[in-house]
Design a protein that fits this description.
- The chain has 8 helices and 8 strands; from the N terminus they run E-H-H-H-E-E-E-E-H-E-H-E-H-E-H-H.
- The chain has 210 residues and is an alpha/beta fold.
- It has a domain of 143 residues: GTP Cyclohydrolase I, domain 2, CATH 3.30.1130.10.
- The strands form 2 sheets. The chain has a 6-stranded mixed sheet, with helices on both faces. A two-stranded antiparallel sheet has the order 2-5.
- Helix 1 packs across helix 2 and helix 4 runs antiparallel to helix 5.
Length: 210
């Protein structure tokens, strides 16, 4: 399996005004037009309800637009005793959609953080991954958004993230290189300042393969 490794710089948020959302009926009409555009008959029996199904599926695929990091990371726990080492969640599965072709991105995220005084529920980290994955994305921006949310809301001493994913826009179309994976990483705090902690993080992630 080929791998492309990209180490990211600090994030730049893209805050742009979102146009008014179309109605469900308009979305279904657009799906019907696409069925006709690809050369099929939207009036045949098997496709009559396809526009409704497409819109319903899109609602499920893109639930991340209705989620916020404040809701997921707002509650923390201070009863951690004398714990002062990293917390690592590895092999968090996710799917997303490429913002250039709207084709799936399928992968895993590995996230570690050094708590300051408090920790967050482990499921909340996975929810943050889903929150940003279930949007139109590039892998680079997905990586940046996840670490930025954890860094901002947990005030951790450091956060590390690695994402490994296969992009269907590369496997199914264009160059059609099935099985190629893209790896992105980003670090903050002690992970960014201490290369030994980066090595430790990557080593712990890779141990999941053994």
């Amino acid at each position: 399996m080929d791998a492309v490794v990209t180490t990211l710089q600090p994030r730049v948020d893209r805050t742009e005004a979102v146009p008014q959302r179309p109605t469900r009926e308009q979305a279904e009409a657009a799906a019907r037009v696409l069925v006709q555009w690809i050369g099929d008959n939207p009036n045949r029996e098997g496709l009559l309800d396809t526009p409704k199904r497409v819109v319903k599926a899109l609602e499920q695929f893109f639930t991340g637009y209705g989620m916020s990091p404040e809701e997921e990371l707002g509650r923390t726990f201070g009863e951690i005793g004398h714990f002062d080492d990293l917390v690592l969640l590895r092999d968090i599965p996710f799917y997303s959609y490429c913002e250039h072709h709207m084709l799936p991105i399928i992968g895993k995220a590995h996230i570690a953080y050094f708590p300051m005084d408090r920790v967050v529920g482990l499921s909340k980290i996975a929810r943050v991954v889903d929150m940003y994955a279930r949007r139109l994305q590039t892998q680079e921006h997905l990586t940046s958004q996840i670490i930025g949310a954890i860094d901002d809301h947990l005030k951790a001493r450091g956060v590390a993230i690695m994402i490994e994913a296969e992009h269907m826009c590369m496997s199914m179309r264009g160059i059609q290189k099935h099985g190629s994976s893209t790896v992105t990483t980003q670090f903050s705090g002690v992970f960014r300042d201490d290369p030994a902690e980066q090595v430790r993080f990557i080593t712990l992630v890779r141990q999941s393969r053994s």
